[in-house]
Amino acid sequence: MMEQKCLPEVSIFKCVKCTKTYSITSGHLGCLCGGLLEVNHDWTLFSLAEKLEHYKLHPSGVWRFKPLIHPEMPDKDIVTRGEGYTRLYSASRRILEFAGCNNLQFKHEGENPTGSFKDRGMTVGISEAKRLGIHTVVCASTGNTSASLAAYASYAGINATVILPKGKIAFGKLAQALAYGANVYTVEGIFDDAMQQVIDLAVKDGSYLLNSVNPWRIEGQKTIIFELLEKLNWESPDWIVVPAGNLGNTSAFGKALNEAYKLELITEIPRLAAVQAKGANPFVKLWKGGIFTPEPNPQTLATAINIGNPVSHSKALEALRFTKGVATSVTDQLILDSKAMIDRSGIGCEPASAATLAGIKKLVEEGIILPSEKVVAILTGHLLKDPQIVVDYHQNQLENIEAKYANRVKSYNN
Ligand SMILES: *Cc1c(COP(=O)(O)O)cnc(C)c1O
Ligand SMILES: [Zn+2]
């Protein structure tokens, strides 16, 4: 152990609050001070350009950036289902008119193996679990993390346990967690209650926690940004817009942009816009008022962002500071109108993903996003994740929602 310390470590965990560092094999996933850990890489210890070139053709859109996310991961421990390489779509004329902007593209993370961006973090998290010889992984989830964890754990031959808030999970996601063979538990309450339970469980039985407090999840999710920027020939868009729930993704985007800028891959820093639902917007309040207060009773139909106590709020706030970003919140009505627009254009997404278009429309109206600016919205999940809300919307059966763009089922009887 002592001798190991003499070798310079390429990757270390560092507390974002007190800057204390830990070895990545120490078993710590949080700082003793209570702060969040992040992974810091020392890219001066090897030739980054050479290594990037070496992995360039990797069949995974995450691991092709391995030197930027987990340089020391042995190739034999990588658990991948070929995640990433998601497409970029131009918005239809109708969507541009709806949003009030001229230059909008969607990056569709619903095209990942289990249908959400969570796979990008999970391939890194599960590979790390394999590297460490872990037998059981756990997470709390609003649905997509559990679907992804269940798939990747089974694929790697590792046991998975997930804790979900009862009755607050979209059907497609619950179906995936069951189908892929995870131990599925539900708790009364909301995601935040499930999160508390899973932290207790991980401490109690030593299983490996794979929520986004796990810094490796964030490393994997950085590749959404690297892949996007590469596709744009490393010319930054003006804005990158992301739905914000537990704020892992917002944090990952900030970290990726910071690193891309420091490594001189980009010269301009895009502004991040983090979009929450009105009924679950503690981060918007933090960003506006400077004080973080959890929302005890978050309420939105966009279940993936129905979170009152987002774990990564401090990292995400730093991400907005660094990118001169903004946080905003939108009504469920506007989220579902926006979703109907995205769906109808032939692209499709789950409700939380449509918060992006809703946020763009609002920010354009407020004069914060200019109509001429280049905007990329991240569609975080697949349309089929939540089929119930789609059918209910088009039958105009959602409480307090006016189905403005309903496509009704008609009976054929003439
Ligand atoms: C997890 C998730 C989000 C929220 O991402 P955070 O990193 O928790 O902020 C948004 N949309 C979908 C589809 C998700 O699965
Ligand atoms: Zn600390």
Can you write the helix and strand succession as a string? HEEEHHEHEHEHEHEHEHEHEHHEHHEH
Assigned CATH class of the largest domain: Alpha Beta
From the spread of the alpha carbons, the general shape counts as: globular
Mean pLDDT: 96
First-to-last CA distance: 81 Å
**CATH topology descriptor of the largest domain:** Rossmann fold
Gyration radius from CA atoms, angstroms: 20 Å
The secondary structure category is alpha/beta
How many distinct domains? 3
Bound molecules: pyridoxal-5'-phosphate, zinc ion
Label the CATH architecture of the largest domain: 3-Layer(aba) Sandwich
The proportion of residues in beta strands is 15-25%
Number of helices: 15
User: Which residues form runs of ≥5 with pLDDT under 50?
Assistant: none
Sheet of most strands: 6 strands, mixed
Fraction of residues in helices?
25-40%
Q: What is the count of β-strands?
A: 13
As laid out across the biggest beta sheet, the strand order is 4-5-13-10-11-12
Protein described:
- By secondary structure, this protein is α/β, with parallel strands linked by helices.
- The chain has 3 domains: 8-45; 88-116 and 217-394, Rossmann fold (3-Layer(aba) Sandwich); 117-214, Rossmann fold (3-Layer(aba) Sandwich), CATH 3.40.50.1100.
- It contains 15 helices and 13 strands.
- It has helices at 2-6, 48-55, 66-69, 93-99, 118-131, 144-156, 171-179, 191-205, 215-231, 248-262, 282-289, 313-323, 332-344, 351-365, 387-394, and strands at residues 11-15, 21-23, 37-41, 88-90, 103-108, 136-140, 159-165, 183-187, 208-209, 239-243, 271-277, 326-330, 374-379.
- It has a 6-stranded mixed sheet with strand order 4-5-13-10-11-12, with helices on both faces. The chain has a 4-stranded parallel sheet with strand order 8-7-6-9, sandwiched between helices.
- α5 (118-131) crosses α9.
- The longest helix is centred in the middle third of the chain and has 17 residues, at 215-231.
- The chain is globular.
- The mean pLDDT is 96.
- The structure holds pyridoxal-5'-phosphate and zinc ion (ZN).
- Residues 15, 17-18, 20, 31, 33, 35 line the site of zinc ion.
